[in-house]
Specification:
635 residues, 3-stranded antiparallel beta sheet, 45-stranded mixed beta sheet, mainly beta, 50 strands
Length: 635
């Protein structure tokens, strides 16, 4: 939950893959996000990039989704939709080159039009290419790794392909994303319900999104969903789409099935009749796991887990514009903490109530005219000051700035180049770190550390340098990397080699001692690892990427260790090569409540855990029992 808005935000990771810009899938429910994503209403994912031209109203024919019109932004602002829910505003300017520049005092990020496409150059030098409808065609990081997006004739996303050639596939049914296939070929399925819609909820057309939902210069360094929200009451239930049957407009994700020997079925609940798209909890394999309640304004008022544990309560004080000024959080142990915010949603103070074990505690924060953090005070009264330039680059940080003795202050300064890369970090009177970059691939080429301290006179002014050397394939993938230093010569050099798909193959030191990795699957997990002494281990994973078998090879004999999981995805049993096993049990809230091993004679050595309402352990009991305890998650 986002304290500065009362927005309920929760994330679910379906699968992950290893590597630079690896293809993974995390879905994020964001109640205050009024857009339409791949997974329908209120849900975003790793692949929900968009450029919004003239409006962020999903009912507008200009909103980027299948079946809609292509709208020319002309000289009006463009908003870049981020997968975490942010909307970053870009304003049109004719110089230094005609295009759109991020809405901040000295922008770095920009959008330039090239023919019928739009290219977004971000602050960290990623390059994002969008088609005329505002949907992504490709994304690349500053080293050239990235994704390409493929669509069918209806403009529905069907595949995202990594530079390595690995890909994620998307299957649609009646305008809804019903299946995602991971790079290893495993399918995750999704189900929806169609909401009854009311055309009376359609907002008046506007030329641009409300600034309350936008991100501008002041959001730098701030949580991506801290800004004043779009008010979900204005479109919950959502408006009727202007061009039916674009079902994703009114589709609401109700469940997913994750593959496995015991599949995990997650059901999402929307039980508040006032707010039909407000997530009120989830059920895993028919066991209710969580609950969420909302106040009259659609802000989260309470969250809790099964058994009424980890119950948090929230209340708000609003300013005349309806923005949150203060949020009071009562934790499961009935201790209250009040958070204060400015009109931009920046955290300006925290006050913890006095309790029998904790005194009254206060901390605070202040921001400059551009919205960047200027000073913060911790609970002990220590002040840290920050100096950002107009680009949002940190120039200086002073810790313990209010200390009367200058020797108690820690001053760190930072230097940046024209490409927004840090080139020097100096802790005054202690050390200096210099960073150098290569032209090819924009990669780090060396790091030099200089001793500025006079505590050991003989070492003052000495430097230590580590160099990084790369070889790449024609598609930009690194094939080898040599890290050499900080000792002079090559005696401490480490050489790593990689496959054409970016998987680590070998790590070798200057003595020729190597660790090798091979047998990778398409999620980037190695099947075998062999150490410098010839010791070898094998690994087998299930369809969810979880380790289910480990093989070791000693004296010509293969030894097996097995891992089992319950329907909630939690480790339930580990069986060692000698047959001895260890079992685990969890409660419905997901807390480990018991673990055990069998003993000689048929008994079991069990450890039992109990917790308080905040899930902090209150007792650990070791006992001998005569019947085998349960494993997995208790119903």
């Amino acid at each position: 939950m986002i304290f500065s808005t009362g927005n309920e935000v929760t994330s679910e990771t379906d699968f992950t893959s290893v590597g630079e810009m690896g293809l993974s899938l995390t879905r994020t429910y964001n109640y205050f996000w009024n857009g339409i994503g791949l997974f329908g209403r209120r849900w975003l994912s790793d692949y929900d990039y968009k450029l919004l031209f003239t409006t962020n109203d999903p009912a507008s024919p200009c909103y980027p989704r299948p079946g809609n019109s292509v709208c020319d932004p002309a000289f009006k602002p463009i908003w870049a939709q981020r997968p975490d829910g942010r909307l970053i505003k870009f304003n049109y300017a004719s110089s230094p080159a005609p295009g759109w520049y991020e809405d901040k005092p000295s922008p770095i990020a920009k959008i330039l039009k090239s023919g019928s496409t739009y290219v977004l150059y971000s602050e960290d030098h990623t390059v994002e290419v969008y088609d005329a409808a505002g949907l992504p065609s490709s994304l690349q990081n500053r080293q050239g790794f990235g994704w390409t997006f493929r669509y069918n004739s209806g403009h529905y996303l069907t595949r995202v392909t990594h530079t390595s050639g690995r890909h994620v596939d998307f299957t649609w049914t009646d305008g809804r994303l019903t299946q995602v296939t991971d790079p290893a070929g495993h399918a995750y399925t999704y189900s929806y319900k169609t909401l009854p819609v009311s055309t009376s909820n359609i907002a008046d057309p506007v030329s641009q999104p409300s600034t309350a939902a936008m991100v501008s210069a002041g959001d730098v360094g701030v949580h991506p969903m801290l800004l004043p929200p779009h008010d979900p009451r204005h479109d919950d239930p959502p408006p009727l789409p202007p061009t039916p049957p674009i079902n994703s407009m009114v589709a609401l994700l109700t469940g997913t099935v994750q593959p496995g020997a015991i599949p995990t079925r997650i059901t999402y609940h929307y039980e508040d009749t006032r707010f039909p798209t407000a997530l009120t909890g989830r059920t895993i394999n028919d066991v209710r796991q969580s609950w969420i309640a909302y106040d009259a304004n659609g802000r989260a008022a309470e969250t809790k887990l099964a058994g009424n544990v980890e119950r948090y309560q929230f209340s708000y004080v609003l300013d005349p514009n309806g923005n949150v000024q203060k949020t009071t959080v009562i934790n499961p142990l009935n201790k209250s903490t009040t958070y204060s915010f400015d009109a931009n949603g920046n955290d300006t103070g925290v006050e913890e109530s006095k309790s029998t074990s904790c005194p009254l505690a206060v901390k605070a924060a202040h921001y400059d005219s551009n919205g960047y953090l200027d000073a913060s005070t911790d609970f002990l009264g220590r002040v840290t000051t920050f100096d950002f330039d107009a680009k949002g680059q940190l120039q200086e940080q002073v810790e313990n700035a209010n200390a009367t003795d200058a020797s108690q202050r820690r001053v760190t300064s930072y230097t940046w180049d024209a490409d927004n890369r840090m080139t020097k970090e100096t802790v005054v009177g202690d050390h200096e770190i210099s960073y150098f970059y290569s032209g090819a691939g924009d990669r780090l080429s060396s790091v030099t550390v200089k001793n500025l301290s006079g505590k050991v006179a003989a070492s003052q002014g000495q430097t230590r340098t580590t160099t990084y050397t790369y070889a790449t394939s024609p598609n930009g993938m690194v094939t080898s990397m040599v890290v050499d230093g900080p000792l002079t010569g090559s005696g401490d050099a480490i050489t790593s080699t990689y496959s054409p798909t970016g998987d680590l193959l070998t790590v070798k030191n200057s003595l020729g001692q190597a660790t090798t990795y091979d047998g990778y699957d398409n999620l980037g997990r190695p099947r075998f690892i062999t150490g410098p002494n010839g010791d070898k281990a094998g690994y087998i994973y299930d369809v969810r990427g979880r380790l289910i078998e480990m093989q070791t090879y000693r004296n010509g004999v293969t030894q097996y260790t097995y891992y089992e999981y319950d329907g909630f995805g939690r480790l339930a049993k580990v069986t060692q090569p000698d047959g001895q096993y260890h079992g685990y049990q969890y409660d419905a809230a997901g807390r480990l409540v018991s673990e055990y091993e069998p003993e000689a004679g048929g008994t079991f050595a069990q450890t039992v855990y109990t917790y308080n309402a905040m899930s902090l352990p209150t007792s650990i009991t070791t006992q001998r029992v005569f019947r085998e305890p349960l494993r997995g998650t208790a119903p």
